[in-house]
Amino acid sequence: MPISQKLHCGIENKSKEGGQCPLCAGVQGRIHLLTSILDGIFSGLSIGSILLLAALGLAIVFGLMGVINMAHGELMMLGAYATFVVQNGFKKLGEPWLQVYIFVALIAAFIVAALVGLLLERGVIRYLYGRPLETLLATWGVSLILQQFVRSVNWVMVIGLVMFSLLFFGGMWILQRRSDFDRIRKWVIAVLLPLSIAISFVVGSVLSNAYQLAVTQPWFGAQNVDVTAPKWLQGGLPIGNSQLPYTRMFIMVLTVLCVVGIYFFLNKTPWGLRIRSVTQNRNMSACLGIPTQKVDALTFALGSGLAGIAGCAVSLLGSVGPNTGQNYIVNTFMVVVVGGVGKLVGTIVGALVIGILDYVIGAGVLMNVFSQFQPLFDFFSFFATSSMAKVMVFLLIVLFLQFRPAGLFPQKGRTVDA
């Protein structure tokens, strides 16, 4: 018997040389189970960190404006694609620059998603406040448009969109200076809109015929693209027989920094105070002179930017495709509902709990825990896949909401009445 086994049991049984005593087997089994549980909790925390990044923005938007933004997942997708573009740009600069691209990618993902969110709020959502069903349907349509846009975007489309924006919105901005603009507004739109579309279409057609494949080739296409983490994020920190990936540790640190930043912004800055005021009582805030429309636009841009950062984090874990956001949007909404609408602490707790449950069930960790109990072992074996784990988590959330319909941290006092 090896010396390590003698140290465990203190018994030398030459007839079983090379074997293992039951005591040693039990100890090693418990160590393996404990390692499996710790790995599951760590991986679940990293998934929960991504959910938290995405749910932070959604919780702020939903808590302030009551808007159910079905395009929130696509804002994550845009952040992931922004990371891919930045990575390719830094590849051309050389290897040393490639090791720091992730910091530029985080900023680019935030800006891209924030700008798209701002356009979405100014162009669609501000006309639908107070009508949740119409908002849900409109943002769902926007999500489908963004998915198809990523599949089909090319130089012709970009040039056409830029030209249309300059002609239509530029023309509207110039004509707004007229004193009688309100009277002729409908006529201006009726003339300027089809004219801008026609000119943009003609320019796109001319470019397509002149340059053919060079300007019509899709940038990304329908296939997934890969983002490679910098070398200093590859590998992991060895702890015993397991390894903690540096990428997931980076995501967790990034999440902590974002949570601290949002807390500081909401509690220590004038605009954060305005956002909290509008969240609690919109009508009273307007009476006090707070520009509620600007607060709405800023809040939506901030929430969208956080979704972009979440997309950057997601890109480090796997391939990025047009449907990337759809894999997270359901869990993100569940985080907001479970935590309590408009509650930062509830969002944090809800994200971490759902992330851990989703992973430990889907990865079969609970199946290993209850391996000695055949009925529970069979039960968790049935749910030991990623898709069935989501079903299990959803059922648990539905059961939880039967007892606490307002979530873990419900709103209290005048906030509810407002």
Record the SSE blueprint:
Blueprint: H1 3-9, H2 22-65, H3 72-91, H4 95-98, H5 101-123, H6 132-152, H7 155-175, H8 181-211, H9 213-216, E1 236-239, E2 242-245, H10 246-268, H11 270-280, H12 282-287, H13 292-315, H14 326-339, H15 344-362, H16 365-369, H17 374-382, H18 386-403, H19 414-417
Antiparallel strand pairs: 1-2
Helix pairs in contact: 2-10, 2-13, 2-14, 2-15, 3-5, 3-6, 3-13, 5-13, 7-8, 10-11, 11-13, 14-15, 15-18
Give me some keywords for this one.
ABC transporter involved in vitamin B12 uptake, BtuC, globular, two-stranded antiparallel sheet, mainly alpha, 19 helices
Question: In short, what is this structure?
Answer:
Helix content is 74%, strand content 2%. The chain contains 19 helices and two strands.
Strand order of the largest sheet: 1-2
Helix-strand makeup class: mainly alpha
Work out the number of β strands: 2
| Low-pLDDT residue spans | 1-18, 413-418
Number of helices: 19
* Main beta-sheet strand count, sense and barrel state: 2 strands, antiparallel
CATH fold name of the largest domain, please? ABC transporter involved in vitamin B12 uptake, BtuC
| Spatial separation of the terminal alpha carbons | 73 Å
Strand content: under 5%
**Form type:** globular
Mean pLDDT: 77
CATH architecture of the largest domain: Orthogonal Bundle
Name of the level-1 CATH class of the largest domain: Mainly Alpha
Succession of helices and strands? HHHHHHHHHEEHHHHHHHHHH
Number of domains: 2
The value of Rg in angstroms is: 26 Å
Helix content: over 70%
